[in-house]
Fold this protein.
Amino acid sequence: MKKIVWLASYPKSGNTWFRAFLANLLRNSDKPVDINELDTGGIASARIPLDLQLGYDSANLTHEEIDRLRREYYLRRASEDGATLFLKVHDAHILLNNGLPLFPPEVSHAVLYFVRNPLDVCVSFAHHSGRADFDRTLVAMGKPNYAVAGNRGRFHDQLRQRMLSWSGHVRSWADAPGHRVHVMRYEDMKLKTEETFTEAVRFADLPGGTERINKAIRFSRFEELRGQEQKAGFRERVHADSQFFRKGKIGSWREELSVEQVEQIVRDHGEVMKRFGYLSENGNVCSAES
Amino acid sequence: MDVAPSSGRPIWLYYKAFGLSIRSCFALPELLEADNLDFDVEIQFGAVKLTLPQADDAGLRYFAAPGKLLLIVDGVARFLVLEGDKIVVERIPGASQSDIRPFLLGPALGGLMQQREDLLFRGSVIEREGKAIAFLGPSGSGKSTLAMAFHQRGYRFVADEHCVVRPDGVGTRLIQAGSPHISLWPDSLRKLSFAVEDLPRVRRKLQKRVVSLKEGFNSSPLPIGRIYLLRPGLTNRVELNPLSANAAYAALENRAQFSLVLDGLGLAPSYRQMMMVVTMHTPVKAVHRPRRKFNLEDMVSVIEADFSL
């Protein structure tokens, strides 16, 4: 049975925005869904759901032992009765040591992959991490073995997520063998909202005609999400003193990154930036509208 | 038959933990040794099958039925827990005893106590003025760290990992003493000024360490004084909120957060009744801790100040 829709992205690329849209689309209520109740299946790297399936805490297992169990966990979740399961994913589409993919294509209905200009990702991810340290963030984005929740010297609420470099992450999902993958650019979600969200709805066989889609778009617009966060907080926020829904702007990098930082990101990721329209053939950073 | 007879005569070792006398063919250096040869629980090696055909409840690596629990830890061991008085362990070749012990003394022993109809929570416990103060919460919520921090302030340590409530002969519900050991991750140990590299690992492949408490361990059961439920907060402050009996009951019933109950063990009615009595007669407070910038000393001080209220 194929029933999982993977909502995959590098962090700060529009995934949570889409989940807010999806929650509103599925609930189809007359008021916006509470951002702290985005019951869209959670994140694939959540520890507690795995622990409940194991019957014991995964805290005493190694990352490698857990990775092998995760694949089996997704297969099992897909075998349960019920409607389509949506899982947010920040891991790259990696292969386990036995050559099998962590995210099994045989139970995958669709992948919606969110990609954003890595220059803006760097700015947003740095603020999200609470330091606004762009140099540190761009180094992390360039590391081929970058992982979050991977420090072996402490407990993590989430399971380790091997993310690879930003380019590695994008390629791993965009070209994931055996999956039906639809790539959505964050910039298109902002600038061609109705068209972009409608394409995703159709690709993943989600419910909803034009009116329902537009209502869900309205209820999940950036101002609504930020307003809710300012009023009642957001439990997915990493730092209590930083906003999750901060600016949501296209092109913040122009004000915040130095020339050297931009050059480094283009050096690291130019090829993938070109593929997704963030860099022209002659090496110039494209404006959002391109 | 779930258990194959083991060959040879076992050499028995005797321990006590959580109010139980344990006879084991498996060395358990974390537990206090016992003098007498009576025992409530036997731990032995034996063959354990890969499945429990009559299971009422099963997950990815567990099978549960009334009186039976099978736990499978890949590459480490299979544990068959029977009728609240026996654990059979089949070691997977290559696994060491230290690989096995965290699962044996954790979920397997926990499952056994559930079979005995003990009330069991995820928690760490300290003693104050003859009563037990329990810190309950999911993995990583800081229970063990908090218990160790209080121990360093002079409070006697009672239990780590399992908070076990069991009525005595006259019906008083007592929290049972575990063993004088706490398992902590290096980042917590550093906050508590331990030299991490000097401490033994919980498992060979894990950085988590075991701290043996040479003194300051309470080995007797204690009446329940207070319960603190540890939860992540959305602010940078430590906040304490008293919970009504109903709210405390609802929180403690949450298997993912506080309870260790496996549905298939079939204990729900007695469990619920005991939990109702505990929540009706015990002050329960939610402790919201900052998600980051977690100042342990501040948190300990806030809770300590609450003890006298």
